[in-house]
Design goal:
Blueprint lengths: L5 E4 L4 E4 L15 E15 L9 E4 L2 E3 L2 E6 L2 E16 L1
Antiparallel strand pairs: 1-2, 3-7, 4-5, 4-7, 6-7
């Protein structure tokens, strides 16, 4: 059971927390996709068919990689790198 009101007393202040309104629905449960790019390429076009715009994590080897990401549709993402790389993209 979740309490309606939580009060935390600190030395100089009193913090009162109350539940807020319901937030928007998230992506359907279990929405997950892993794209593996075996052949090095400067542009990866990924058809994940998840039906939503969502974040992703890029790995080159075991390192997180940053790149230009364009989500043209809720089902396709294009990733551009400065030079050809291979690796994987995970869409949680």
């Amino acid at each position: 059971m979740v309490p309606d009101l939580i009060v935390i007393r600190e030395t100089d202040r009193l913090i009162v927390r109350a539940p807020g309104p319901q937030g928007p629905s998230g992506a359907p449960g279990g929405s997950y996709h892993v794209h593996t790019q075996d052949d090095a390429a400067a542009t990866w076009v990924i058809n994940h068919n998840l039906g939503v715009y969502m974040g992703l994590t890029l790995f080159v080897g075991d390192e997180v990689q940053y790149a230009d990401v364009h989500q043209g549709t809720p089902n396709q993402t294009t990733i551009s790198f400065p030079s050809p790389v291979s690796g994987r993209a995970t869409f949680p």
